[in-house]
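look at this stuff:

>
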Amino acid sequence: MSQNQQGDKAQKEQYLSDQVEKGLDADLCAQFLVSLKPEGGDDIDNWSLSELKSAIEQFKESQKQAEEQQPNNSEDQSNLQQAQPQEQPQQNQQINQQSNTPVLVNCYQILPNELSGDNVSAKIVTYKKESAGFFSSSYIVFQIETQPHGWVVFRRYSDFEWLRDSLQKFYPAFVVPPIHKKRSRSFEDTYLNKRVIFMQRFLNSIFKSYELKSNIIVKNFLSLTQNNEFKKFQESITKSAPPQTVQRMFSKEGQVNCVAPGELHQYAQQTQDYFYEIDGVYKKLRVLSKSLKEIQQQNSLKIYCVGEIFASLFQHLNKLNQVLPTGQAQGLAATSRYYKQHYDYLGQYYWKINRINRGHYNSSIKQIYETRAVISQDLEKFKSKLHYKKERLFQLGDISKWDLSKDIKLSPQELQQNKKLAFQYMCDQETKQEMGMEMLVGYYTNQIFSQTQQFFKQQQQELVGHFIKFCQVQAFNITDHHQLWADAITNLQNNLLTQKRQTQQVVIESVG
Protein backbone atom coordinates (compact mmCIF):
# COMPACT_ATOMS: atom_id res chain seq x y z
CA MET A 1 0.00 0.00 0.00
CA SER A 2 1.40 3.41 -1.03
CA GLN A 3 1.78 6.32 1.37
CA ASN A 4 -1.14 8.13 -0.33
CA GLN A 5 -3.38 5.11 0.15
CA GLN A 6 -2.32 4.79 3.77
CA GLY A 7 -3.05 8.47 4.35
CA ASP A 8 -6.47 8.16 2.70
CA LYS A 9 -7.34 5.14 4.84
CA ALA A 10 -6.24 6.97 7.99
CA GLN A 11 -8.57 9.88 7.09
CA LYS A 12 -11.50 7.51 6.59
CA GLU A 13 -10.80 5.74 9.89
CA GLN A 14 -10.56 9.09 11.70
CA TYR A 15 -13.83 10.25 10.11
CA LEU A 16 -15.63 7.08 11.21
CA SER A 17 -14.13 7.32 14.70
CA ASP A 18 -15.38 10.92 15.02
CA GLN A 19 -18.87 9.86 13.92
CA VAL A 20 -19.00 7.09 16.51
CA GLU A 21 -17.90 9.54 19.20
CA LYS A 22 -20.87 11.73 18.19
CA GLY A 23 -23.28 8.84 18.77
CA LEU A 24 -23.32 6.94 15.47
CA ASP A 25 -24.48 3.32 15.91
CA ALA A 26 -21.51 1.40 14.45
CA ASP A 27 -23.29 -1.95 14.02
CA LEU A 28 -26.39 -0.56 12.30
CA CYS A 29 -24.28 1.72 10.11
CA ALA A 30 -22.07 -1.18 9.01
CA GLN A 31 -25.19 -3.15 8.00
CA PHE A 32 -26.46 -0.12 6.07
CA LEU A 33 -23.16 0.21 4.18
CA VAL A 34 -23.27 -3.48 3.22
CA SER A 35 -26.82 -2.95 1.92
CA LEU A 36 -25.49 -0.19 -0.35
CA LYS A 37 -22.55 -2.31 -1.52
CA PRO A 38 -23.41 -6.01 -1.13
CA GLU A 39 -20.01 -6.92 -2.54
CA GLY A 40 -17.32 -5.62 -0.22
CA GLY A 41 -19.35 -2.94 1.56
CA ASP A 42 -17.86 -4.05 4.86
CA ASP A 43 -14.32 -3.23 3.67
CA ILE A 44 -13.23 0.37 4.20
CA ASP A 45 -10.82 0.12 1.24
CA ASN A 46 -13.81 -0.21 -1.12
CA TRP A 47 -15.03 3.30 -0.23
CA SER A 48 -13.56 6.65 -1.10
CA LEU A 49 -13.74 9.32 1.59
CA SER A 50 -16.43 11.28 -0.31
CA GLU A 51 -18.48 8.12 -0.92
CA LEU A 52 -18.21 7.21 2.75
CA LYS A 53 -19.36 10.65 3.92
CA SER A 54 -22.32 10.54 1.54
CA ALA A 55 -23.30 7.04 2.73
CA ILE A 56 -23.08 8.08 6.39
CA GLU A 57 -25.36 11.05 5.74
CA GLN A 58 -27.87 8.73 4.03
CA PHE A 59 -27.76 6.43 7.07
CA LYS A 60 -28.36 9.34 9.46
CA GLU A 61 -31.35 10.48 7.40
CA SER A 62 -32.85 6.99 7.37
CA GLN A 63 -32.42 6.74 11.15
CA LYS A 64 -34.06 10.13 11.64
CA GLN A 65 -37.07 9.11 9.54
CA ALA A 66 -37.39 5.83 11.44
CA GLU A 67 -37.38 7.67 14.79
CA GLU A 68 -40.05 10.12 13.60
CA GLN A 69 -42.33 7.24 12.67
CA GLN A 70 -42.03 5.62 16.10
CA PRO A 71 -44.40 6.72 18.91
CA ASN A 72 -42.80 8.85 21.60
CA ASN A 73 -43.09 6.95 24.85
CA SER A 74 -40.25 8.59 26.71
CA GLU A 75 -42.56 10.10 29.28
CA ASP A 76 -44.03 6.90 30.69
CA GLN A 77 -40.72 5.31 31.78
CA SER A 78 -42.05 1.96 30.56
CA ASN A 79 -38.70 0.20 30.82
CA LEU A 80 -38.20 1.23 34.41
CA GLN A 81 -41.70 0.09 35.34
CA GLN A 82 -40.64 -3.46 34.51
CA ALA A 83 -38.84 -3.32 37.84
CA GLN A 84 -41.45 -1.14 39.54
CA PRO A 85 -44.71 -2.16 37.87
CA GLN A 86 -47.08 -0.98 40.58
CA GLU A 87 -47.63 2.72 41.09
CA GLN A 88 -49.99 3.27 43.99
CA PRO A 89 -53.00 5.60 43.49
CA GLN A 90 -52.07 9.21 44.09
CA GLN A 91 -53.96 11.24 46.67
CA ASN A 92 -54.69 14.95 46.86
CA GLN A 93 -52.95 15.94 50.09
CA GLN A 94 -52.44 19.37 51.56
CA ILE A 95 -48.79 19.77 52.52
CA ASN A 96 -48.06 21.93 55.54
CA GLN A 97 -44.33 22.57 55.54
CA GLN A 98 -44.61 24.41 58.87
CA SER A 99 -45.56 21.14 60.60
CA ASN A 100 -43.18 18.38 61.60
CA THR A 101 -45.85 15.75 61.00
CA PRO A 102 -44.70 13.36 58.24
CA VAL A 103 -46.73 13.42 55.03
CA LEU A 104 -46.34 10.24 52.98
CA VAL A 105 -46.77 10.55 49.23
CA ASN A 106 -47.05 7.52 46.94
CA CYS A 107 -44.26 6.90 44.43
CA TYR A 108 -42.85 4.01 42.39
CA GLN A 109 -42.07 1.03 44.59
CA ILE A 110 -38.79 -0.80 44.08
CA LEU A 111 -39.70 -4.47 43.92
CA PRO A 112 -37.06 -7.07 44.89
CA ASN A 113 -35.36 -8.99 42.09
CA GLU A 114 -32.49 -11.46 41.67
CA LEU A 115 -29.94 -8.87 42.86
CA SER A 116 -31.72 -7.82 46.06
CA GLY A 117 -30.28 -10.53 48.31
CA ASP A 118 -27.22 -10.12 50.51
CA ASN A 119 -25.35 -13.07 48.98
CA VAL A 120 -25.25 -11.66 45.43
CA SER A 121 -22.01 -10.27 44.01
CA ALA A 122 -20.70 -9.05 40.65
CA LYS A 123 -17.00 -9.47 39.90
CA ILE A 124 -14.84 -8.36 36.97
CA VAL A 125 -12.80 -11.49 36.30
CA THR A 126 -10.80 -10.52 33.21
CA TYR A 127 -10.65 -8.34 30.11
CA LYS A 128 -9.86 -8.79 26.45
CA LYS A 129 -9.22 -6.76 23.33
CA GLU A 130 -11.95 -6.69 20.68
CA SER A 131 -11.84 -5.48 17.08
CA ALA A 132 -14.51 -3.00 15.97
CA GLY A 133 -14.55 -4.49 12.46
CA PHE A 134 -15.38 -1.95 9.77
CA PHE A 135 -14.88 0.96 12.13
CA SER A 136 -11.30 -0.23 12.75
CA SER A 137 -10.70 1.03 16.29
CA SER A 138 -10.07 -1.78 18.77
CA TYR A 139 -11.45 -1.59 22.29
CA ILE A 140 -11.38 -3.44 25.61
CA VAL A 141 -14.30 -5.41 27.05
CA PHE A 142 -14.45 -6.50 30.69
CA GLN A 143 -15.93 -9.85 31.65
CA ILE A 144 -18.34 -9.61 34.59
CA GLU A 145 -19.64 -12.63 36.47
CA THR A 146 -22.64 -12.36 38.80
CA GLN A 147 -22.96 -15.05 41.43
CA PRO A 148 -24.82 -17.14 42.50
CA HIS A 149 -26.83 -16.68 39.27
CA GLY A 150 -23.95 -17.54 36.93
CA TRP A 151 -24.55 -14.52 34.67
CA VAL A 152 -21.60 -13.69 32.42
CA VAL A 153 -21.50 -10.53 30.30
CA PHE A 154 -18.90 -8.42 28.51
CA ARG A 155 -19.10 -4.64 28.93
CA ARG A 156 -17.05 -1.71 27.68
CA TYR A 157 -15.92 1.22 29.82
CA SER A 158 -18.56 3.38 28.07
CA ASP A 159 -21.20 0.92 29.32
CA PHE A 160 -20.05 1.53 32.88
CA GLU A 161 -20.35 5.28 32.26
CA TRP A 162 -23.85 4.76 30.88
CA LEU A 163 -24.79 2.73 33.97
CA ARG A 164 -23.68 5.47 36.33
CA ASP A 165 -25.35 8.23 34.29
CA SER A 166 -28.60 6.25 34.19
CA LEU A 167 -28.61 5.61 37.94
CA GLN A 168 -27.90 9.25 38.63
CA LYS A 169 -30.68 10.21 36.22
CA PHE A 170 -33.42 8.08 37.80
CA TYR A 171 -32.16 8.11 41.40
CA PRO A 172 -31.19 11.78 41.81
CA ALA A 173 -31.68 11.74 45.58
CA PHE A 174 -29.34 8.77 46.13
CA VAL A 175 -25.56 8.75 46.34
CA VAL A 176 -24.44 7.07 43.13
CA PRO A 177 -20.78 6.01 43.47
CA PRO A 178 -18.30 7.71 41.12
CA ILE A 179 -16.43 5.93 38.37
CA HIS A 180 -12.81 6.74 37.60
CA LYS A 181 -12.49 8.79 34.41
CA LYS A 182 -10.69 7.25 31.46
CA ARG A 183 -7.61 9.34 30.72
CA SER A 184 -5.98 7.08 28.16
CA ARG A 185 -6.68 4.50 25.44
CA SER A 186 -3.75 2.39 26.56
CA PHE A 187 -3.98 -1.38 26.16
CA GLU A 188 -1.12 -1.99 28.60
CA ASP A 189 -1.88 -4.57 31.30
CA THR A 190 -0.65 -2.28 34.08
CA TYR A 191 -3.13 0.42 33.09
CA LEU A 192 -6.02 -2.00 32.50
CA ASN A 193 -5.49 -3.85 35.78
CA LYS A 194 -5.71 -0.54 37.61
CA ARG A 195 -8.92 0.27 35.70
CA VAL A 196 -10.40 -3.07 36.77
CA ILE A 197 -9.78 -2.14 40.40
CA PHE A 198 -11.61 1.18 40.02
CA MET A 199 -14.58 -0.33 38.20
CA GLN A 200 -14.84 -3.16 40.72
CA ARG A 201 -15.06 -0.58 43.50
CA PHE A 202 -17.87 1.06 41.55
CA LEU A 203 -19.83 -2.21 41.35
CA ASN A 204 -19.17 -3.00 45.01
CA SER A 205 -20.54 0.39 46.04
CA ILE A 206 -23.72 -0.15 44.00
CA PHE A 207 -24.31 -3.47 45.78
CA LYS A 208 -24.20 -1.71 49.15
CA SER A 209 -27.46 0.07 48.26
CA TYR A 210 -30.68 -1.94 48.09
CA GLU A 211 -32.33 0.74 45.95
CA LEU A 212 -29.53 0.96 43.38
CA LYS A 213 -28.97 -2.75 42.88
CA SER A 214 -32.67 -3.74 42.88
CA ASN A 215 -33.66 -2.15 39.59
CA ILE A 216 -33.95 -3.14 35.95
CA ILE A 217 -31.01 -0.95 34.88
CA VAL A 218 -28.41 -2.79 36.97
CA LYS A 219 -30.06 -6.16 36.36
CA ASN A 220 -29.94 -5.82 32.57
CA PHE A 221 -26.42 -4.43 32.72
CA LEU A 222 -25.32 -7.65 34.42
CA SER A 223 -27.58 -10.17 32.67
CA LEU A 224 -28.25 -9.25 29.00
CA THR A 225 -25.75 -11.31 27.01
CA GLN A 226 -26.83 -10.32 23.48
CA ASN A 227 -25.11 -7.08 22.49
CA ASN A 228 -27.93 -5.85 20.22
CA GLU A 229 -30.51 -6.50 22.95
CA PHE A 230 -28.43 -4.60 25.52
CA LYS A 231 -27.91 -1.67 23.13
CA LYS A 232 -31.64 -1.49 22.48
CA PHE A 233 -32.26 -1.37 26.23
CA GLN A 234 -29.60 1.32 26.67
CA GLU A 235 -31.24 3.44 24.00
CA SER A 236 -34.70 3.13 25.57
CA ILE A 237 -33.39 4.12 29.02
CA THR A 238 -31.45 7.05 27.58
CA LYS A 239 -34.62 8.34 25.88
CA SER A 240 -36.78 7.93 29.00
CA ALA A 241 -37.54 11.09 30.93
CA PRO A 242 -36.06 11.47 34.45
CA PRO A 243 -38.42 11.89 37.42
CA GLN A 244 -39.55 15.50 37.87
CA THR A 245 -42.03 15.01 40.72
CA VAL A 246 -42.04 13.16 44.02
CA GLN A 247 -44.66 10.75 42.67
CA ARG A 248 -42.18 9.55 40.03
CA MET A 249 -39.34 8.92 42.46
CA PHE A 250 -38.41 5.39 43.56
CA SER A 251 -38.35 3.92 47.05
CA LYS A 252 -38.31 0.53 48.71
CA GLU A 253 -41.65 1.13 50.46
CA GLY A 254 -43.47 2.86 47.59
CA GLN A 255 -43.95 5.97 49.73
CA VAL A 256 -41.75 8.93 50.65
CA ASN A 257 -42.02 11.58 53.34
CA CYS A 258 -42.29 15.07 51.86
CA VAL A 259 -42.13 17.11 55.06
CA ALA A 260 -38.74 17.62 56.72
CA PRO A 261 -38.47 18.97 60.29
CA GLY A 262 -36.69 22.26 60.75
CA GLU A 263 -33.63 20.58 62.27
CA LEU A 264 -33.17 18.51 59.11
CA HIS A 265 -33.14 21.66 56.96
CA GLN A 266 -30.46 22.99 59.30
CA TYR A 267 -28.62 19.65 59.09
CA ALA A 268 -28.68 19.82 55.29
CA GLN A 269 -27.16 23.30 55.29
CA GLN A 270 -24.45 22.44 57.81
CA THR A 271 -23.40 19.20 56.12
CA GLN A 272 -23.40 20.97 52.74
CA ASP A 273 -20.94 23.52 54.14
CA TYR A 274 -18.83 20.65 55.49
CA PHE A 275 -18.60 18.82 52.16
CA TYR A 276 -17.58 21.97 50.30
CA GLU A 277 -15.08 23.04 52.96
CA ILE A 278 -13.21 19.72 53.03
CA ASP A 279 -12.54 19.89 49.29
CA GLY A 280 -9.43 21.90 50.10
CA VAL A 281 -8.39 19.40 52.78
CA TYR A 282 -8.58 16.47 50.39
CA LYS A 283 -6.78 18.46 47.71
CA LYS A 284 -3.86 19.00 50.11
CA LEU A 285 -3.95 15.30 50.99
CA ARG A 286 -3.74 14.32 47.32
CA VAL A 287 -0.84 16.73 46.71
CA LEU A 288 1.09 15.51 49.78
CA SER A 289 0.41 11.86 48.94
CA LYS A 290 1.72 12.39 45.43
CA SER A 291 4.78 14.18 46.79
CA LEU A 292 5.41 11.37 49.29
CA LYS A 293 5.11 8.82 46.49
CA GLU A 294 7.68 10.69 44.41
CA ILE A 295 10.06 10.95 47.38
CA GLN A 296 9.80 7.23 48.08
CA GLN A 297 10.43 6.43 44.44
CA GLN A 298 13.45 8.74 44.42
CA ASN A 299 14.79 7.10 47.59
CA SER A 300 14.29 3.67 46.10
CA LEU A 301 16.12 4.60 42.89
CA LYS A 302 18.98 6.25 44.80
CA ILE A 303 19.40 3.14 46.94
CA TYR A 304 19.51 1.01 43.82
CA CYS A 305 22.19 3.38 42.45
CA VAL A 306 24.27 2.90 45.61
CA GLY A 307 23.95 -0.84 45.06
CA GLU A 308 25.18 -0.44 41.49
CA ILE A 309 28.23 1.50 42.75
CA PHE A 310 29.18 -1.40 45.02
CA ALA A 311 28.59 -3.76 42.09
CA SER A 312 31.08 -1.69 40.08
CA LEU A 313 33.56 -1.77 42.98
CA PHE A 314 33.21 -5.57 43.15
CA GLN A 315 33.96 -5.87 39.41
CA HIS A 316 37.11 -3.74 39.74
CA LEU A 317 38.33 -5.70 42.79
CA ASN A 318 37.55 -9.02 41.12
CA LYS A 319 39.52 -7.92 38.05
CA LEU A 320 42.43 -6.90 40.27
CA ASN A 321 42.37 -10.20 42.20
CA GLN A 322 42.54 -12.16 38.94
CA VAL A 323 45.91 -10.58 37.99
CA LEU A 324 47.53 -10.46 41.45
CA PRO A 325 49.68 -13.53 42.23
CA THR A 326 49.49 -12.84 45.96
CA GLY A 327 47.90 -10.43 48.47
CA GLN A 328 44.50 -10.59 46.83
CA ALA A 329 41.63 -8.51 48.29
CA GLN A 330 39.12 -11.37 48.35
CA GLY A 331 37.46 -10.20 51.57
CA LEU A 332 36.87 -6.67 50.32
CA ALA A 333 35.46 -8.00 47.05
CA ALA A 334 33.06 -10.30 48.89
CA THR A 335 31.98 -7.41 51.12
CA SER A 336 31.33 -5.19 48.10
CA ARG A 337 29.22 -7.91 46.46
CA TYR A 338 27.21 -8.34 49.67
CA TYR A 339 26.64 -4.58 49.90
CA LYS A 340 25.25 -4.62 46.40
CA GLN A 341 22.78 -7.38 47.30
CA HIS A 342 21.84 -5.62 50.55
CA TYR A 343 21.06 -2.32 48.83
CA ASP A 344 18.97 -4.18 46.26
CA TYR A 345 16.86 -5.48 49.13
CA LEU A 346 16.58 -1.98 50.60
CA GLY A 347 15.47 -0.57 47.25
CA GLN A 348 12.75 -3.21 47.02
CA TYR A 349 11.61 -2.34 50.57
CA TYR A 350 11.22 1.36 49.84
CA TRP A 351 9.44 0.55 46.59
CA LYS A 352 6.97 -1.73 48.44
CA ILE A 353 5.93 0.80 51.05
CA ASN A 354 5.13 3.15 48.18
CA ARG A 355 2.38 0.78 46.98
CA ILE A 356 0.01 1.52 49.88
CA ASN A 357 -3.41 2.66 48.63
CA ARG A 358 -4.52 6.11 49.66
CA GLY A 359 -8.05 6.78 50.90
CA HIS A 360 -10.69 7.66 48.33
CA TYR A 361 -13.00 10.64 48.74
CA ASN A 362 -16.48 10.14 47.33
CA SER A 363 -17.62 13.57 46.11
CA SER A 364 -20.75 12.32 44.36
CA ILE A 365 -22.90 13.08 47.42
CA LYS A 366 -22.57 16.78 46.62
CA GLN A 367 -24.82 16.26 43.59
CA ILE A 368 -27.84 15.81 45.90
CA TYR A 369 -27.09 19.10 47.65
CA GLU A 370 -26.74 20.90 44.33
CA THR A 371 -30.07 19.54 43.08
CA ARG A 372 -31.81 20.53 46.33
CA ALA A 373 -30.28 24.01 46.13
CA VAL A 374 -31.54 24.51 42.56
CA ILE A 375 -35.08 23.37 43.47
CA SER A 376 -35.06 25.58 46.58
CA GLN A 377 -33.99 28.63 44.57
CA ASP A 378 -36.62 27.94 41.90
CA LEU A 379 -39.23 27.51 44.63
CA GLU A 380 -38.42 30.86 46.24
CA LYS A 381 -38.62 32.65 42.88
CA PHE A 382 -41.87 30.90 42.01
CA LYS A 383 -43.44 31.67 45.39
CA SER A 384 -42.49 35.32 45.12
CA LYS A 385 -44.04 35.68 41.66
CA LEU A 386 -47.16 33.75 42.64
CA HIS A 387 -47.63 35.80 45.81
CA TYR A 388 -47.39 39.00 43.80
CA LYS A 389 -49.93 37.63 41.30
CA LYS A 390 -52.37 36.68 44.07
CA GLU A 391 -51.99 40.09 45.66
CA ARG A 392 -52.93 41.76 42.38
CA LEU A 393 -55.88 39.44 41.78
CA PHE A 394 -57.19 39.96 45.32
CA GLN A 395 -56.93 43.74 45.01
CA LEU A 396 -58.80 43.73 41.68
CA GLY A 397 -61.56 41.66 43.27
CA ASP A 398 -62.63 39.95 40.02
CA ILE A 399 -63.18 36.44 41.38
CA SER A 400 -63.81 35.03 37.88
CA LYS A 401 -60.08 35.43 37.14
CA TRP A 402 -58.89 33.71 40.31
CA ASP A 403 -58.71 30.17 38.83
CA LEU A 404 -60.26 28.72 41.99
CA SER A 405 -59.89 25.10 43.06
CA LYS A 406 -62.81 22.90 41.98
CA ASP A 407 -63.29 21.36 45.42
CA ILE A 408 -63.78 24.74 47.12
CA LYS A 409 -66.85 24.93 49.41
CA LEU A 410 -66.66 28.61 50.36
CA SER A 411 -68.79 31.34 48.86
CA PRO A 412 -67.25 34.18 46.79
CA GLN A 413 -68.15 36.64 49.54
CA GLU A 414 -66.26 34.59 52.17
CA LEU A 415 -63.20 34.49 49.97
CA GLN A 416 -63.27 38.20 49.22
CA GLN A 417 -63.42 38.92 52.93
CA ASN A 418 -60.66 36.50 53.96
CA LYS A 419 -57.35 37.09 52.20
CA LYS A 420 -55.64 34.03 53.73
CA LEU A 421 -58.37 31.68 52.53
CA ALA A 422 -58.45 33.34 49.13
CA PHE A 423 -54.70 32.86 48.69
CA GLN A 424 -55.11 29.18 49.58
CA TYR A 425 -57.68 28.47 46.84
CA MET A 426 -56.91 30.91 44.02
CA CYS A 427 -54.51 30.12 41.11
CA ASP A 428 -55.23 26.43 41.57
CA GLN A 429 -52.76 25.03 39.02
CA GLU A 430 -49.90 27.26 40.10
CA THR A 431 -50.62 26.56 43.77
CA LYS A 432 -50.39 22.83 43.05
CA GLN A 433 -47.12 23.45 41.21
CA GLU A 434 -45.79 25.32 44.24
CA MET A 435 -46.88 22.46 46.48
CA GLY A 436 -45.08 19.98 44.24
CA MET A 437 -41.86 21.97 44.50
CA GLU A 438 -42.21 22.15 48.29
CA MET A 439 -42.69 18.39 48.37
CA LEU A 440 -39.49 17.95 46.34
CA VAL A 441 -37.50 20.15 48.73
CA GLY A 442 -38.84 18.19 51.71
CA TYR A 443 -38.07 14.88 50.00
CA TYR A 444 -34.49 15.89 49.11
CA THR A 445 -33.93 17.22 52.64
CA ASN A 446 -34.99 13.90 54.17
CA GLN A 447 -32.88 12.01 51.63
CA ILE A 448 -29.83 14.11 52.45
CA PHE A 449 -30.11 13.05 56.08
CA SER A 450 -30.48 9.32 55.33
CA GLN A 451 -27.86 9.29 52.56
CA THR A 452 -25.24 11.23 54.53
CA GLN A 453 -25.72 8.96 57.54
CA GLN A 454 -25.12 5.97 55.31
CA PHE A 455 -22.24 7.77 53.61
CA PHE A 456 -20.48 8.58 56.91
CA LYS A 457 -20.89 4.97 58.04
CA GLN A 458 -19.38 3.62 54.82
CA GLN A 459 -16.54 6.15 54.96
CA GLN A 460 -15.72 5.05 58.51
CA GLN A 461 -15.68 1.39 57.45
CA GLU A 462 -13.46 2.16 54.46
CA LEU A 463 -11.03 4.26 56.53
CA VAL A 464 -10.81 1.62 59.26
CA GLY A 465 -10.25 -1.07 56.64
CA HIS A 466 -7.63 1.07 54.90
CA PHE A 467 -5.64 1.77 58.07
CA ILE A 468 -5.85 -1.84 59.23
CA LYS A 469 -4.33 -2.85 55.90
CA PHE A 470 -1.81 -0.01 56.18
CA CYS A 471 -0.76 -1.17 59.67
CA GLN A 472 -0.53 -4.80 58.53
CA VAL A 473 1.73 -3.83 55.63
CA GLN A 474 3.90 -1.66 57.86
CA ALA A 475 4.14 -4.36 60.55
CA PHE A 476 5.23 -6.90 57.93
CA ASN A 477 7.73 -4.45 56.37
CA ILE A 478 9.20 -3.53 59.75
CA THR A 479 9.61 -7.21 60.65
CA ASP A 480 11.12 -7.89 57.24
CA HIS A 481 13.38 -4.85 57.54
CA HIS A 482 14.47 -5.88 61.04
CA GLN A 483 15.43 -9.29 59.70
CA LEU A 484 17.30 -7.66 56.83
CA TRP A 485 19.47 -5.57 59.19
CA ALA A 486 19.99 -8.51 61.55
CA ASP A 487 21.16 -10.64 58.62
CA ALA A 488 23.44 -7.80 57.54
CA ILE A 489 25.15 -7.74 60.95
CA THR A 490 25.57 -11.51 60.98
CA ASN A 491 26.89 -11.66 57.41
CA LEU A 492 29.37 -8.84 57.93
CA GLN A 493 30.66 -10.37 61.15
CA ASN A 494 31.00 -13.73 59.43
CA ASN A 495 32.77 -12.02 56.55
CA LEU A 496 35.34 -10.48 58.92
CA LEU A 497 35.76 -13.77 60.75
CA THR A 498 36.35 -15.60 57.48
CA GLN A 499 38.87 -12.97 56.40
CA LYS A 500 40.70 -13.30 59.77
CA ARG A 501 40.91 -17.08 59.45
CA GLN A 502 42.21 -16.79 55.91
CA THR A 503 44.92 -14.34 57.07
CA GLN A 504 45.94 -16.67 59.90
CA GLN A 505 46.12 -19.57 57.46
CA VAL A 506 48.39 -17.55 55.15
CA VAL A 507 50.70 -16.71 58.09
CA ILE A 508 50.91 -20.36 59.19
CA GLU A 509 51.70 -21.48 55.69
CA SER A 510 54.43 -18.83 55.30
CA VAL A 511 56.05 -19.80 58.63
CA GLY A 512 55.93 -23.46 57.75
